[in-house]
Specification:
- By secondary structure, the protein is an alpha/beta fold.
- Helices cover 32% and strands 21% of the residues.
- Strands 1, 2, 3, 4, 5, 6, 7, 8, 9 and 10 form a 10-stranded mixed beta sheet that branches.
- It is globular, with a radius of gyration of 17 Å.
Length: 268
């Protein structure tokens, strides 16, 4: 029997970024799922704060070289990889000089100001993951997204790539966390992120692209939702519970690998 394939799309993974509950899930969940006998791939943004030499990142030339057009501007897509040897895991990093490499922080500048182009970075990251999976010719059974920078993956998979044989049977699981931001993406985000087959009705929430509406859009196109933190934005929690999709309650660090693994098996 062929192994179940799980694609993990994480905004944060330790040891590449500081330890916190979300980055620890990024480090430990894929390893645990791999130990359950599933085949995995892992993606995250190559934030400029990640030390390439210490973490032994290197570019994968055969996967790099594509340009992604966002708002009529070409942005080169660079793919890098690193390995966590102890866990026998390889991490793929989505990189671009302007969006990631040149900045020595993640989503805010050194003064704590939210980057104005986090909207473009979100589009670039989500599209970059999908295009790289296409180049790898790897068909995931489960796509599990973590962190708001992965929020466009569900709509792109379900609308833009719905007829692509790599993705047409993929099930999307979205984890909600307490990673709210208070800022709003720039006006026109609902138009900027659109690709073929996405209709205005699909992105109604994104006419006002704040954190809650970004998450609602992700949930609208997901096949299952996981409460990744003990406390979730109440509006989002109510919205998630109102949808007719499977929902997994918050699981403790001691239990979540088993619980998530069962959730994957039941949803696919």
């Amino acid at each position: 029997m062929e192994k179940t394939k799980v694609l993990f799309v994480h905004q944060e993974i330790t040891p590449y970024l500081d330890e916190n509950p979300i980055s620890l899930v990024g480090r430990n969940l894929p390893e645990g799922i791999q130990m359950k006998g599933k085949e995995i791939r892992i993606f995250m943004p190559r934030f400029g704060s990640i030390n390439e030499r210490r973490n032994q990142l290197h570019e994968v030339i055969r996967l790099s070289g594509m340009n992604l057009i966002i708002n009529d501007t070409d942005h080169p897509l660079i793919i890098k990889v690193a390995s966590i040897q102890k866990a026998r895991m390889q991490i793929y990093f989505i990189d671009n000089d302007d969006f990631f490499t040149k900045r020595k922080s993640t989503i805010t500048d050194k003064d704590g100001v939210f980057f104005e182009d986090n909207d473009d970075r979100t589009v670039f990251f989500s599209r970059g993951v999908i295009e790289t999976i296409r180049k790898l010719n790897w068909s995931p059974d489960i796509i599990h997204c973590h962190g708001w920078m992965s929020a466009l993956i569900p709509i792109y998979i379900k609308k833009v790539f719905r007829d692509n044989p790599l993705f047409n049977e993929s099930k999307i699981v979205y984890s909600l966390y307490d990673d709210d931001f208070t800022e709003t993406f720039r006006d026109g985000f609902d138009k900027k992120m659109k690709l073929q087959n996405i209709t205005p009705e699909d992105v109604t929430h994104l006419q006002d692209a704040n954190y809650v509406n970004l998450m609602k859009t992700a949930l609208d196109f997901s096949d299952g939702v996981i409460m990744g933190s003990e406390k979730i934005n109440p509006e989002l929690e109510d919205y998630a519970r109102s949808l007719n999709i499977p929902l997994l309650e918050y699981q403790s660090p001691e239990n979540y690998v088993d619980a998530y693994n069962d959730f994957y098996d039941n949803i696919k």
